[in-house]
Amino acid sequence: MKTFTFTKNIFFAALTSLVMLLTSMGCSDNEDKTATATSEHNPFDHPHDFPVTDIQKHKFEHEFAKQCVQNELRNSVNKELDKERYTEPCMCIATFMMKDLTAQEAKKFITEHENPRSLQIKFDSAAYHCLQQKAQAIKGPQLFGKR
């Protein structure tokens, strides 16, 4: 007897599920939902700006490296020696930043002579990258002569 009520409950559950499935399929509309999705304004989806030309990148690279060296020499005692020392890392930083340069950042830096916050963030990342390449191994004291 228990088997009979068990199969009876499964039959009613299956029948109820089938009816709900068919009614939900019958209620769907055939309208295209993508038309309404594209018309809505999405603040995170912005048109990508125009690519930066090679001339702008080259100009940015040299102007940024020049500005970097000038900033480093501001508090320097021996300017000639320090200029040679800072030229290579500043050029590395400018080259590293040039890879991700957007047209808006290039325009702000080259024509308006401004440093947007995005350039400051890229500078920090590039400085970390370029200066880590030059890390020298720390030499400990020689206790027992040369090894």
Automatic annotation (TrEMBL):
It comes from the Bacteria. Keywords: Signal. Residues 1-28 form the signal peptide. The keyword Signal applies. This is Lipoprotein. It comes from Candidatus Methylobacter favarea.
